[in-house]
Amino acid sequence: MFWILLCLSIVGGLGFWAGMYLQKDKNKGLLDEERAELAEKDRELLRERHQLHQKIKAHEQEVKNAYDKLAATKNKHIQDINQRVQAAKQTVLEERQKVALATRELNAVREAEAVIQRKINGYGDEYLIPSIQLMDELADEYQIHKAGEKLKACRATMRQMIKQGTATDQQNGTSKILLDFFNVHAEELIGKVKHENYGKLKQELADVYALTEYHAKQAYFAANITQEYYKIRQDELKWASVLQTLRTEEREQQRALREQAKEEERARKEYEKAIKDAAKEEAMLQAAMEKARAAMAKASEEQKAQYEAQLAELNIKLKEAEEKNQRALSMAQQTRAGHVYLISNIGSFGDNMMKIGMTRRLEPLDRVRELGDASVPFLFDVHALIYSEDAPALEKLLHREFNHARVNKVNHRKEFFRVTPLQLKEKLAELGIQAQFTLAAEAAEYRETLRIESMDKGEQDKLLDTLLAHEIDEE
User: Fold this and answer.
1) Roughly what angle, to the nearest 10 degrees, separates helices 173-191 and 227-298?
2) Strand 354-359 and strand 338-344: pairing?
């Protein structure tokens, strides 16, 4: 039994391993088939990848070609745009040049019109340059001969430029015509030079130069006056004006010196007369006093009181005469002592104008009365008379303080200022100058004239006839 079971067991084991072996062969066949399929799939994948790679390369080439084409188109467009921009810039530049040329031509025409208008209307005060402003560039010690040398140097340079042909930028027939035209008018202006008209002549010369240039362009002349030559002619005009101003200043100084000498002579005569009169008066008073003393010695007691009172009165008068004599003698010995006067003339010059001057006269009012002679319609009113041991210095100080208010800023010897009496009084107080000051101007003749003008015509005629008859009676 055992052996049967053992045999069955062995047979069963062998069957199992035989089945396993058969299954293994079967599995191996299946595995080989799968491997073959996988190999085929790998080959298929390789072919597909190769095909895909070829497609990618073809697509990349297409993209590259499209990009290159687009870049070329873009560059061409950019180039076209740049060309159009450059063309537009060139057009704008040309148009701007045309506009600039047209503007210059328009300005030239307008300048020519303005020049012609100035020629027609004349050159007003806006072109006035005070001679003192012209002289500001020069030193105080600048003399006439130096200005003359400068003028001669300018003219020598002008002649040399004409001779060398540098007065115009071209040498042809038209250049001589232009130069002659310009020189004729420039010489005419030089002949008009006065000490106060430099500004007007300077503008006229500029207008002549502008007209010369304008006519040259209009006539298509191939020549122009050079700027250098124009500058020399400007300098010539300037130095001619300086020379004329210096000559005028010299004449004014000589006139002032003559006037000062006359004033000094009048003052000297006044002092001498005052001294003589005072000495004569002293002698008369002393003789009267001696006579009174002699009479008093013989007089009664009642009469002595009268003589004593008479002697006291004579003694007072003698002291006054001695003081007057001493004052006249003192002023005669002091060459700078005198009075500074502050006067106005509202009838002649208005309310806000004062004259600040000085005199060495013993009686300063005599000088004020002289100023109110036939040259002005009304007398001057005195606001202050200030005695000073250095009257010229005090006068100069006040002139300097009110220099900004000068009426005549060209000729400083005209001593009128646009100030009020109150401003003068305040300035004197500020400077610590003591003076008896009167703010109100009497202006008696002026105010009486206004009163007469306000009358009816019949009353005016009647009054004027009365005044005329009175004047005839006085004659």
Assistant:
1) 10
2) antiparallel
Per residue in 6-56, pLDDT (tens digit) is 666 666 666 666 566 566 666 666 777 777 878 888 788 888 888 888 888
Phi (first) and psi of residue 356, to 5 degrees: -115, 110
Residues 190 and 110: beta-carbon distance below 8 Å: no
Burial-class residue 15 by CB neighbours within 10 Å (0-12, 13-18, 19+).
exposed
Task: Supply the pLDDT for residue 357.
Answer: 92
Tell me: the pLDDT tens digits for 175-196? 788 888 888 888 888 888 887 7
SS3 call for 69 = helix
Which residues make Cβ contacts (< 8 Å) with residue 288, sequence separation at least 6?
A: 314
Q: Residue 250 and residue 85: Cα distance in Å, rounded?
A: 71
DSSP assignment letter at 140: T
Q: Are 168 and 175 in contact (CB under 8 A)?
A: yes
Which pLDDT tens digit goes with each residue over 399-438?
Answer: 999 999 999 887 777 899 999 999 999 999 999 998 888 8
Buried/exposed 138-160: b ≥16 CB within 10 Å, e otherwise? eeeeeeeebbbebbeebbebbee
Higher pLDDT, 138 or 406: 406
The Cα 145–Cα 143 span in angstroms is 6
Closest C-alpha among 378, 383, 345 to residue 364 = 383
CA separation for the pair 13, 49 (Å, rounded):
52
Task: Give the C-alpha separation, 357 to 367, whole Å.
Answer: 10
